[in-house]
User: Fold MarR family transcriptional regulator from Niallia endozanthoxylica.
Amino acid sequence: MQGFFQRYLSLYRPLITTLNELLSSHQLSYSLWQVIFYIKNNGPSTLVDISTYYQVEKPTITRRVHRLEELQIVKQIPGKDRREKVIQLTESGEEIYKDMRKRITDLEYRVMDGIAEEEQAVTFQTLPKIKDNLVKQEGRKSE
Assistant:
């Protein structure tokens, strides 16, 4: 289907801009939200866990975590190995997560307005499959 990527990318930028505006009330950006979201859904995590999941370099996650520590949203806790940095949400981070999760869910409902549930379900199921295909393709290139 020619033009699919163009359509997707034309959605991506306005979506990220809107999310950044929404998150700015807590001095957050979407890239910082990704770390909060991961920890909330996976529990205390290492920087390697997060960087692997989002397929970004560890120094990128380290910078995000430092910023979240400055905002007192995450804190470091002892790991199995002293060299391993494990982070978890603080009480303040938990409250910010709840507030932002509600706002983001409200945004999701607004942007999906007028789109049939069946169409929403197909899109929800299709996007992860596309990601999996891209990851497989990247894996073949490195072999």
